[in-house]
Design goal:
CATH architecture of the largest domain: 2-Layer Sandwich
CATH superfamily of the largest domain: ATP-grasp fold, B domain
Strand content: 25-35%
Order of helices and strands: EEHEEEHEEEHEHHEEEH
Number of strands: 12
CATH class of the largest domain: Alpha Beta
Radius of gyration: 18 Å
Shape: globular
CATH topology of the largest domain: D-amino Acid Aminotransferase, Chain A, domain 1
Helix content: 10-25%
Oligomer: single chain
Number of domains: 2
Largest sheet: 8 strands, antiparallel
Length: 279
């Protein structure tokens, strides 16, 4: 599918790409027919989502069902989903809860080039516009500074008993920076929102990736990445300028350059920036 002629990947493809870079996601299974439900094998409660490159904002169209408690509810949810979105595959995943919600993204800005964005996620992303940017690639020091630059950064310091491992958050930013570095000239926008940060875990709940319209068909992109990408109602949104933003969020924010590296290799990396064992 194209969003304004940009190539969009489905959520399972998106999460496979994130996992390739060591970024943790919920355990999930793709369901394409009723008999697949018997082999889902995930712990309840579950979440069911429509999984289509033609649907960027799943919640807006009723494409997300939460809190599925047992096999009977799972079968009923699947029937509703297939009736509403015939021909689309469905993603079923373990329902994650708790933690602080953050957003991480990439934007190939026409002036600054591939840049990474970090901020408070979920409802905070739109309400507070509390975000910071760097040009990739970034260093560990850059990542640490990005965390500290947020107006709400105190939530990462055991605010009201919420435990956050700052090192895990830094590793998440380095992983996304590495992904952006590898896909310079290919990815136009990436939006991971929300990421649940709890203790030593940073779990990417939903994600979107838009590839540049000049690239070949979607099939070639998926082969090239070993998987692809897609996801949550976050910052990715078409604008007249061709950049991404939510109500002007990105356009109104200044950029700070990170580490200046050698000429970038656009070949996808075979190495991950470790985020810890996938659970």
């Amino acid at each position: 599918m194209t969003a304004g002629k940009k190539k969009v990947l489905t959520e399972d493809e998106a999460k496979a790409l994130l996992r390739r870079y060591g970024i943790q996601t919920p355990l999930y299974k793709i369901v394409e027919r009723p008999e697949d439900l018997d082999s889902v094998g995930l712990e309840y409660p579950l979440v069911m989502k429509v999984c289509s490159p033609d649907i960027l904002h799943k919640t807006d169209v009723g494409g997300v069902m939460l809190g599925i408690k047992d096999a009977k509810e799972l079968a009923a949810a699947y029937k509703q989903m297939r009736d509403k979105f015939p021909g689309s595959k469905v993603l079923v995943e373990r329902m994650e809860t708790g933690g602080i919600e953050v957003i991480v993204g990439l934007l190939d800005d026409p002036t600054f080039g591939m840049s990474i964005m970090f901020g408070l996620g979920g409802i905070f992303a739109e309400a507070l516009r509390d975000v910071t940017f760097r040009v990739v690639p970034i260093t560990k020091k850059d990542a640490d500074q990005m965390i500290g630059e947020l107006k709400g950064s105190r939530v990462f310091k055991n605010f009201r008993g919420m435990q956050v491992d700052r090192g895990a958050l830094i590793s998440l930013l380095l992983s996304v920076s590495k992904l952006g570095e590898d896909y310079v000239g290919k990815i136009d926008q990436l939006d991971i929102n929300p990421v649940f940060v709890r203790g030593k875990e940073c779990i990417a709940i939903d994600a979107k990736v838009l590839f540049k319209p000049s690239l070949a068909g979607k099939e070639g992109l998926i082969q090239e990445t070993s998987s692809g990408t897609a996801g949550k109602e976050g910052l990715i949104q078409e604008t007249s300028s061709g950049t991404a933003g939510k109500e002007g969020l990105i356009q109104e924010t200044s950029f700070t350059k990170g580490r200046q590296g050698p000429p970038l290799d656009t070949t996808p990396s075979e190495e991950h920036v470790p985020m810890g064992a996938y659970k």
